[in-house]
Request: fold
Amino acid sequence: MSERQDTGRQDAGRQDVHRQDGERPEPIRVMVVDDHPMWRDAVARDLAESGFDVVATAGDGDQAVRRAAAAAPDVLVLDLNLPGKPGVQVCKEVVGAEPRLRVLVLSASGEHADVLEAVKSGATGYLLKSASTEELRDAVRRTAAGDPVFTPGLAGLVLGEYRRLASEPAPAAGTDDPGAPRLTDRETEVLRLVAKGLSYKQIAERLVISHRTVQNHVQNTLGKLQLHNRVELVRYAIERGLDDA
Reply:
């Protein structure tokens, strides 16, 4: 492997945004949860060798929830089929406890029901275990940035589910309150593009602003609307027709 290639691997796990002191950006903190030790160790090793900071691993659901709270990862790489507590329940609990935590499901199942259940539980992305190491590295990096990441063919399924959910009479808490905080024009613009399925990078390019600024607008919008994750945010936008605007 050339020096250039090796440097690329080491930089793969680092955050896109540089620290204010001018030093190299901090590595993305990752936790790997899988009940198969060989697979879990292999994924953790590959991510560590690619420059990510693997802060913890776990082999069952209860252990995953405890260790995630203690290790404070940026991204939880999560299998769905876990002993003790299923992956979707783990996802609900860890995201509920720390909304900024991103969950990337890494599963052998491509069943639509599993994908949709994971997304409803708060997962940011869903990748099949048939993915290559390079695809996994890219998925973890994009998940850390808040971009929805799905194995090809699943993204359309998830967007269709967003639209179905939006047709149900279940508005987000507080959004019908006349006294609810109002979004700025820029926050509304970002929300409209999120609802259309654009990644944060694509939104940044479209609006000619930084990736970090897009993230900040999304976090501010979540806080104002008392929502917890991108799933709820897209549902809110579609309910109000922002995806067709």
Notes: The domain at 182-240 is CATH 1.10.10.10 (Arc Repressor Mutant, subunit A).
